[in-house]
Please model this.
Amino acid sequence: MEAALSPSAVITPARPRGLVIAYWAFTVLFCLQIGFTAYAQLSLPQLEEVFRHVGMPSWFRVELAWAKFLGIAVLLLPAPARLKEWAHAGFVITLVSAIIAHIASNEGPEVWSWAAGTLVLWALSYFFWRKTERR
Model:
């Protein structure tokens, strides 16, 4: 008679420590950057004018800021992989849309480079998350 192994008894290869450290480093930096922009969107009145300038309504600024805070929580706290995937998707859509909105409003790189830099942090966070995620 064969003995059944419990799921906790199955040996799985450990995730490389360097990948985990890189994931958390880039994710924390990304979340700090996004958190700063969300806080600024809620507290700095001049950002209301920026949203108006790129053609977005004022209510969208508030909604977007709270969505960013929610996405940060999903990335930093334990959550199902599918939920983290949706948070990553929401962030990339937000960042690419911000770059497009600024470029379409004839603004130069001094304005949209903030979003582009954040997009690089997002890409590194997502890349290392995919590398460390157990499937």
